[in-house]
């Protein structure tokens, strides 16, 4: 039997509709328009597409968005200065620094100085710490979107074995934290696999939930998937001008119970969750928490 395809585009559209309604209600009650400022340094074409999509999504949801584009030769000191100015600007509720940054800029040094209340990516150590402690302020957009996709399958996650391929700060590590929390869509037993993991295939084969985020095209093949597993593909690889995930979609969908496509899977959900976080930031910063 072929797997349920978890349609990230459709799910994202329904979240975005709901968020647009919440933004309108918030605006009526507070007279505040949530405002996201994104910073894009350099001319990476993929990053340019992502920030443009974020801007469009904001516009449709009634969220103000400002994109600050900086040349690739921008210095770390200049970027720090800009982030500090945005931190101090009370008209800005969310600050997003599009990653990756050019090699000469230390990403950690930049992410560490974003005001944690405006950190709609949830990359600041204070927000990461709150997630680890199980009392999140914001959830990082990709893991947050994945959690919603898993919830949409109605699969009971409690006690299930989730295997995450990849230990990045953006996806792998926070995803593990969300899946081990107590509650609905969580309570899982989690294994994180990475480049030094031994018996990786065997571990993946024991998973009820597979989250592939290693940046290797079609790495997860059908023989690595337990029948009935949920397979979430976070990979976005360009192969011969085509977008390919970290999962061999066509064969794996014959084994899994549910699977996300690439494109049209996790990516669109990442953007929907950014809108959710921006509205949450506007509520927190303006003290309008009840509407
Ligand atoms: N500051 C951040 N930087 C980065 C993040 C992030 O969450 N915050 N995540 C990724 C990139 N990313 C969001 O910024 C992102 C990637 C992909 C998509 C998406 O919708 N992809 C489409 C395909 C689009 C294409 O043609 O390339 C899809 O999967 O359907 C959205 C957001 C790294 N940087």
UniProtKB/TrEMBL annotation:
UniProt superkingdom: Bacteria
Catalytic activity: (6R)-5,10-methylene-5,6,7,8-tetrahydrofolate + NADP(+) = (6R)-5,10-methenyltetrahydrofolate + NADPH; (6R)-5,10-methenyltetrahydrofolate + H2O = (6R)-10-formyltetrahydrofolate + H(+)
Annotated Tetrahydrofolate dehydrogenase/cyclohydrolase NAD(P)-binding domain residues: 140-283
Pathways per UniProt: One-carbon metabolism; tetrahydrofolate interconversion
Domain Tetrahydrofolate dehydrogenase/cyclohydrolase catalytic: 6-121
GO molecular function ontology, one term from the record: methylenetetrahydrofolate dehydrogenase (NADP+) activity
GO BP field: L-histidine biosynthetic process; methionine biosynthetic process; purine nucleotide biosynthetic process; tetrahydrofolate interconversion
Binding site for NADP(+): 166-168, 236
Assigned EC number: 1.5.1.5, 3.5.4.9
Any one annotated GO CC term: cytosol
Signal peptide: none
UniProt cross-references to InterPro entries, sorted A to Z: Aminoacid_DH-like_N_sf (IPR046346), NAD(P)-bd_dom_sf (IPR036291), THF_DH/CycHdrlase (IPR000672), THF_DH/CycHdrlase_cat_dom (IPR020630), THF_DH/CycHdrlase_CS (IPR020867), THF_DH/CycHdrlase_NAD-bd_dom (IPR020631)
Keywords: Amino-acid biosynthesis, Histidine biosynthesis, Hydrolase, Methionine biosynthesis, Multifunctional enzyme, NADP, One-carbon metabolism, Oxidoreductase, Purine biosynthesis
Chain's role: Catalyzes the oxidation of 5,10-methylenetetrahydrofolate to 5,10-methenyltetrahydrofolate and then the hydrolysis of 5,10-methenyltetrahydrofolate to 10-formyltetrahydrofolate.
The family this protein is said to belong to: Belongs to the tetrahydrofolate dehydrogenase/cyclohydrolase family.
Assembly information from the UniProt record: Homodimer.
Protein name, UniProt field: Bifunctional protein FolD
Species of provenance: Gimesia fumaroli
